[in-house]
């Protein structure tokens, strides 16, 4: 199978489902939604421009040379259907801060070895977080806080329908309405309480390991599925907060601030044995984020937010008042409320 034998690259000009005209192929940027294993297009129904993500089977064959073609097709079809089912659930529940699927289908393209191209169509974003954010914390504080508020709502919405995102990172925060609204995108590595994920194996982390919570890096896996999923999303949210203000995620900061002999790629002992060193590195990392924010009151608030979201032990994450309430330790409600208050204050300050 040669690279030109790829139906996913042959959709331009086609009319899908009698409605969507494929007008232009979009070159994927490194780390963007879609990525190497998808081919992306702009499509139009005559009124709206949307984003199409087509599965690129050939890319998998190139990466996994020697593996059974039938096995790869089955695996990737299962992965596609899993993501599609999660997206359709989100759409049916009107999750306002999760990127919306508009349509889905499969196009038959003659003349190719594999001539069926499954695709998903989404509302068109302006770009992802990286296209907008700056790390001069004297400007756009209100925008950053509002964006984080949107993301926290999105995570709470996902949890309300039994979905854990598990791969929250800057490229998966999508911007709409010229950047006014932020939504969570890419559920491809998510986990769900009642829909089996083809990529879930023995409780391991399913997202990008450069953003992974420390417990996974040291080989500790929380046995309770619900606690593990929610504690992971809470950490990833806090790590995103760190990125908004410093350009560095919390995992990278901890890795920088911990004595190298205790870092996950060097340490050979247990998770319990390294906890004190992790906590020390964690508080050094918080201090680093806080130092990047000149507004002392806001710096204190962000430090508190990080301390409850990213604590190295998953059992101690969460709002102090929530920890004592069964079932709500990792709930985002108090975080949402706090970010709303901080956003409104920052917006008022713009008018002074």
From TrEMBL:
**Family assignment?**
Belongs to the protein kinase superfamily. Ser/Thr protein kinase family. GCN2 subfamily.
Q: Which InterPro entries match?
A: CC_SR_Kinase, Kinase-like_dom_sf, Prot_kinase_dom, Ser/Thr_kinase_AS
Q: Which domain of life is it from?
A: Bacteria
Every Protein kinase domain range: 9-333
One annotated GO molecular function: ATP binding
Question: Which species?
Answer: Pedobacter miscanthi
The signal peptide here is none
Q: What is this protein called?
A: Protein kinase
A GO CC annotation given for this chain: cytoplasm
Membrane spanning residue stretches? 234-254
Keyword terms = ATP-binding, Kinase, Membrane, Nucleotide-binding, Transferase, Transmembrane, Transmembrane helix
């Amino acid at each position: 199978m040669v690279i030109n034998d790829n139906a996913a690259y042959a959709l331009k000009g086609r009319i899908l489902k009698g409605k969507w005209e494929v007008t232009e192929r979009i070159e994927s940027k490194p780390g963007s939604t879609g990525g190497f294993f998808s081919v992306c297009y702009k499509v139009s129904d005559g009124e709206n421009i949307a984003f199409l993500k087509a599965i690129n089977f050939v890319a998998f064959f190139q990466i996994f040379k020697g593996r059974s073609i039938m096995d790869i097709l089955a695996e990737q079809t299962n992965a596609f259907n899993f993501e599609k089912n999660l997206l359709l659930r989100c759409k049916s529940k009107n999750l306002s801060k999760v990127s919306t699927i508009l349509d889905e289908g499969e196009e038959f393209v003659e003349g190719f070895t594999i001539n069926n191209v499954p695709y998903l169509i989404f509302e068109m974003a302006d770009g992802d977080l990286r296209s907008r954010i700056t790390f001069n914390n004297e400007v756009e504080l209100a925008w950053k806080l509002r964006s984080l508020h949107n993301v926290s709502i999105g995570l709470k919405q996902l949890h309300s329908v039994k979905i854990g995102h598990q791969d929250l990172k800057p490229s998966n925060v999508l911007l709409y309405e010229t950047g006014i609204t932020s939504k969570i995108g890419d559920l491809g590595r998510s986990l769900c309480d009642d829909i089996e994920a083809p990529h879930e194996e023995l409780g391991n982390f399913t997202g990008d390991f450069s953003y992974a919570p420390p417990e996974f890096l040291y080989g500790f896996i929380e046995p309770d599925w619900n606690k593990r999923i929610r504690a992971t999303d809470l950490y990833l949210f806090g790590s995103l907060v760190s990125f908004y203000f410093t350009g560095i995620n919390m995992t990278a900061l901890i890795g920088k601030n911990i004595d190298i002999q205790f870092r996950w790629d060097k340490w050979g002992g247990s998770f319990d044995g390294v906890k004190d060193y992790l906590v020390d590195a964690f508080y050094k990392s918080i201090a680093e984020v806080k130092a990047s924010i000149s507004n002392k009151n806001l710096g204190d608030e962000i430090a508190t937010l990080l301390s409850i979201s990213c604590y190295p032990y998953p059992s101690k994450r969460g709002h102090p008042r929530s920890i004592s309430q069964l079932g709500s330790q990792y709930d985002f409600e108090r975080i949402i409320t706090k970010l709303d208050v901080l956003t409104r204050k920052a917006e008022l300050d713009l008018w002074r």
